[in-house]
Design brief:
161 residues
Length: 161
């Protein structure tokens, strides 16, 4: 199957509570593949309560799926009336380079714009070079620091207005 045909096999949908277990398992697998075990009592606590963390506070969380299988995620977590965090942007390693990450990112940024947020922040690891390239392509710029407790070492922001 050509990569063009493969790009068409996924769809983006908003998270639903009945997908909580499958979503958490997907994210745990991604973290394990990155060599970072996910701590349920630390930076990973949000993935076990996605509706509460994202959707009930004015944000949203999306899944990229091939059929019934989750192949990517992204969330917008509201900080205040003007600022949001882009979180949990993960793509299955075998599905990278197929446009899934860009589609998820566009979906999340479109949501932030539509809901009149002014700034999108994110935090990531310095070694995630390909992710940095994609973030920069979408207008994110590095900033020196965010007051977040996440286990990351690179911070970026995008001004929407």
């Amino acid at each position: 199957m050509s990569s063009i045909a493969q790009k068409r096999t996924f769809h983006i949908e908003a998270f639903r509570p009945e997908l909580q277990k499958q979503t958490a398992e997907f994210i745990e697998t991604v973290w394990t593949d990155l060599g970072r075990p996910l701590r349920r009592d630390g930076a990973g606590v949000d993935i076990f309560s996605i509706s509460r963390t994202y959707q009930q506070n004015g944000g949203e969380f999306w899944l990229a799926r091939e059929g019934e299988v989750i192949v990517g995620t992204v969330g917008i977590q509201v900080l205040d009336r003007k600022r949001v965090l882009l979180r949990r942007w993960y793509i299955s390693p075998e599905k990278r380079g197929m446009g899934i990450g860009s589609k998820l990112l566009k979906t999340a940024l479109g949501y932030a714009k539509t809901h009149s947020f002014e700034t999108v922040w994110l935090s990531t690891k310095r070694e995630s070079i390909e992710a940095h390239r994609i973030f920069k392509k979408h207008g994110f710029v590095p900033i020196t620091h965010l007051s977040l407790s996440y286990e990351t070492d690179l911070y970026m922001q995008l001004k929407l207005n």
